[in-house]
Amino acid sequence: MRIARIEAIAYGAIAGRVVEPEPGLTVIHGPNESGKSSTMQLIRGVLFGFPRLQGEGPRREPKGGGQRAGRIDIVTDDGRRLRIERAGSSLTVTDHEGVPVGDAAFAHALGIASAELFDRVQTFDAKDLAWMGLLDDPSVRAGVLASAVLGGGAGAGPVLEGLQKRADALYLRQGEKQPYAHALKQATAARRALRDAEREAGTVERSSDAIAEAEQRVDAAHEQLVVATRELQRLERLLELREALRALSALEAPVDGGVEEPTADTLSTFRALLGDVPTAVEARRRAEQLLSDGADEGARAQAGRSHLGLAAAAVPALGDEAALRTAAETVREAEREATRLGDAARTIAVHVPVVAEQTSTTPRRGLGAALIVISLLAIGAGWAISITAMILGGILGVAVGAALLGGLIGSSRTGRSTDMATASDQQRPAAEQAEALAEQARAAWCGALGGLGLSGELRIDQLDDILTTLATIRTAEQAAARAGALAETETASAVEIAARAAAALTASGVEPPTELGQLRDTIDRTLHQLEERRTQAAAGRNELQAWQDRQALAQRRVDELSLDDEALVAAAQALDLELTDAQRTVLEQEVAAASEEHAAALEARGGTRALLANAEDSSDLASLAQAAADAEADLRTVADQWLTLQLAHDLVESARDRFVAEHQPGVFARAARQIETATNGSWVSVRMPDGEKAGARSEIIAADGTATPFTELSEGTVGLVYLCLRAGLVDELHDDGGAELPVLMDDVLTHLDPERRVGAAAVIADLATRHQVLYFTCHPEQVQALRSANPGLTEIELQRLV
Amino acid sequence: MRFEAIDVAIDELDDEAALERELRQRAATIVAAAEGRLVLLRVTLTGRGPLHEVLVRDDYLAGLRSALDDQEDAELVWERIASTAGPAVELDDLRQSNAFAAEVLAVFDELAADPAAAEQLLEGLTASFTDSALVGLATEDPETRLAVARDLALGLLLEQGGAA
């Protein structure tokens, strides 16, 4: 393929630029900043993709922003014209009419070419020529020649480098930081530890005797220490026991105060009496008041009795008062009748004879009935109060009343007469009889008074007074009786309390007072004394308990120390203090010495044991052997990895050398022809060492067969040789089946002198007869040299952009 | 404790995530069968596939082992992950090509066909190994070592894109 048209759509500062190279040699020239390099990079970018990262090449972002874009028209080997347009990462392939044809046609046109190959084979500049001077440097030669010869872009170089780097990271012959060195140290250390452990195993046996001796020493020191310590402890125990015995015997029992402690019941009794005694005093006061009141009432009753003439007899009952009232009424009635009859007789006697028999019989009968009644009452009363006179009077009254009622009295004396002349005479006796009856009624009144025990002097008109006085007497006598009874009860209560208090006091040894009023003070004082005695008794009891506790404690201490060993007690009691102090001093010194010896023995035994323990630890042969085996396995793993990497490296290197050797002849043959042309036959060939043999040198061969090392050639000659090699490589690559690709050159004639420049221009012109060559330069002399070599070349002049 | 060693083919695994999934699944099966015992697992990656390009990176396998071991699985220890896997290429096709990789392959093939030469080469490489633990390393399964080295080289070469 060849490039027919280059168009920068958006790329760096050359947007809009169009360059149309021709087949053969096209020289694109212009001053600096005319965009030659940008145009070269645009070609690479459109064909193989724009660099994405800065390290992949200049990015050439468009000045106006947006993504990079360019368009290249190519003419394939079979004459098809394709337009390759790339915008960013987007690729479009069309035919000359703009019809998409797919990427396959473009890929076919590129063949096996990649960006790497394009950079290393098809594109070169003056710097590449300068590298030729370093071709004897193995790394430079591997990077420049070999990769170029291989036609594989980076080819074997990076692979070899990567493999070697990884291998070196594992192992270097003089390296100390690599895993191999570390693993080797580990393995060596593990094996040494194992050997040491095996050696220590012998030490263990030898240490056994030392341990036995140390044990014996420790045992002896321990025995000595135990004996001395026990003796010292026994002595100190005796001293302590002695002191305990002394303390026990020094305890004095508390003196008994002889205070008799009153009982709680006694105190309760006195506390109750303290409240009861005032009650007794109050009861006695109330009894005295009641007795006084009773006496007053008795006096009042006695006055009433005197007033009524009532002696010691009982006061008449209320029923008896009714008979008295009836008797009084009868007397009054009789007197009124007698008065009326007397008045009537006197009237008749003065004015008319009056008095009829009939009129005189009625009063008499009434009087007789009244007399009977009163008499019966008098009999009843006399019967009730056992007064015979009243009974007899009553009987007499009944007889008289019956006579009057039957008309026996008077009718026999007067008789009935109807004669008016005798009426007055008849009325007079009736009056007299009425008077007599009145008299009898009064006698009956008196009888009634007497029947009630009252004075006969009492008049009928005093009836109300009599009755009132009788009521007063009854009330007073009843009140006096009640007061007396209550006073008796109160007195009995007071007496009971006083008796109880007296008994309590007597029981407590206190003489009870005779006066009730002094009783409370006595009770109070006695109670206070009893409580004080109780407090004293409690204090004494506490003191006794404390003493008992101290005694028990001291006894327990003695028991603990003596262990019920009477002999020990006896020994303690018989202890000689001065002798004991001396013994203790000696024993303490013995204990200290034994302790030091014991500690020293222990230390010695510990050291021996530690030695033995170390030996035993290190004699864990199994684990150490395992550790050694593990370390060796790690070492073997690292070495195994390194060996595989190094094997891969060496075989890739071998393949590279063979590949180079296979292809070198063709390259060198072509290069030799170019060199001979460029040097007008002075030099006819080049020879480069096989592979990277030490001391090998690249040489140029003169027509007479002499060889001159590159290092002895001028820079320009070396550059010329390199140009020839590259030209031969391009031909070799194409003839070996590679695709036809344009060759891009950037000022490759810069370092050549005019003579070499002419020769080099001839090489370029010759190369352009088989391949499209785009030569970029800003040097007019180079343009001129190329014009001279190829008068038919195409020139495209670029203008400065800024 | 149980020691287990498994081979995991990378042929069907497209990327690193697929590889990790496959490893975890295989490990889970082994742990489940271990009935609670601690499992020390050693993995060898085999086969061919695009994943080979990842496996040959520096420290990738060590990083993978560390990442898997950091999982909170108290019953499993990823003791080691090694690779004998090769690149995703058909060796026969490659041998017929005109590429540099074909030259590399030819060198390995020739050595594999000549055990004495291979042994001599390996002995030469291990000449500086004087430690007793490394005795016999050169002769230890040279065929496998050559295959691993070949796949390693081809993988790197193809990764560079320069095999054509």
Order of helices and strands of chain B: EHEHHEHHHH
Span between termini of chain A: 33 Å
Query: What is the strand tally of chain A?
Result: 13
Q: Structural class given helices, strands, pairing of chain A?
A: alpha/beta
Stretches with pLDDT under 50, minimum 5 residues of chain B: none
For the biggest sheet of chain B, the summary is:
3 strands, parallel
The overall pLDDT of chain A, averaged over residues, is 81
Alpha-beta content class of chain B:
alpha/beta
Across the major sheet of chain A, the strand order is 2-1-4-5-6
Key traits:
A: 802 residues, alpha/beta, five-stranded antiparallel sheet, elongated, B: 164 residues, three-stranded parallel sheet
Task: Kindly describe this structure.
The complex is a heterodimer of chains A (802) and B (164). Chain A is 68% helix and 8% strand. With 802 residues, chain A is an alpha/beta fold. A 5-stranded antiparallel beta sheet of chain A has the order 2-1-4-5-6, with helices on one face. In chain A, helix 20 links the parallel strand 11 and strand 12. In chain A, helix 7 packs across helix 15, helix 8 packs antiparallel against helix 14 and helix 10 runs parallel beside helix 13. The longest helix of chain A is centred in the first third of the chain and has 71 residues. Chain A starts with a strand and ends in a 5-residue tail after the last strand. About 4% of the residues of chain A have low confidence. With 164 residues, chain B is α/β, with parallel strands linked by helices. Helices cover 49% and strands 15% of the residues of chain B. Chain B is built from 7 helices and 3 strands. In chain B, strands 1-2-3 form a 3-stranded parallel beta sheet. The longest helix of chain B is centred in the last third of the chain and has 19 residues. The radius of gyration of chain B is 18 Å and the shape is globular. The relative contact order of chain B is 0.14. At the A-B interface, helix 6, helix 7 and helix 18 of A face helix 5, helix 6 and helix 7 of B.
